[in-house]
Design brief:
The protein is mainly alpha-helical. It has a domain of 83 residues. Strands 1-2 form a two-stranded antiparallel ribbon. Strand 1 and strand 2 form a beta hairpin. Helix 1 packs antiparallel against helix 4 and helix 2 packs antiparallel against helix 3. The longest helix is centred in the middle third of the chain and has 21 residues. The radius of gyration is 26 Å and the shape is elongated. The two termini are 36 Å apart.
Length: 125
């Protein structure tokens, strides 16, 4: 509260400030993900592409597993889900013939679409 007084003007004037809270843009509410799921899937497909051929048989499990573990950590997945995700991505990157199939991107797109749906019974704005 700010007050100003001047002996020539007469009575004091009181100026009250209005506090406005900054709320996030409605488009960004509830989004705490570091990457969109489709981008995370693209990164896994990129790792799968680099482990194509005989390299994937030896390094695919480790490269895909480490990449998936890092992504699972970024998404703050529970440990059990993170380990299953790590195993699945490692097997996917080590399998021969999966480089031309964008399975990670497709799964990421599907998860992104599923995540945008409102929960049943949620109020509509």
């Amino acid at each position: 509260m700010v007050s100003s007084s001047n002996s020539e003007e007469g009575p004091r004037r009181v100026i009250e400030a209005e506090v406005v809270s900054e709320e996030p843009h409605p488009q960004h509410q509830g989004r705490s993900q570091p990457l969109p799921p489709v981008l995370a899937g693209m990164l896994l497909d990129l790792l799968d592409f680099f482990t194509a051929g005989p390299i994937g048989l030896f390094a695919g499990l480790a490269v895909g597993g480490v990449g998936a573990f890092v992504l699972g950590t970024l998404y703050k997945l529970p440990l059990k889900k993170k380990l299953w995700f790590t195993l699945a991505a490692g097997v996917y990157c080590s399998m021969p013939g999966t480089a031309p199939i964008p399975l990670g991107t497709l799964v990421g797109a599907w998860l992104g679409i599923q995540g945008d749906k409102p929960e049943p019974g949620a109020p509509v704005e």
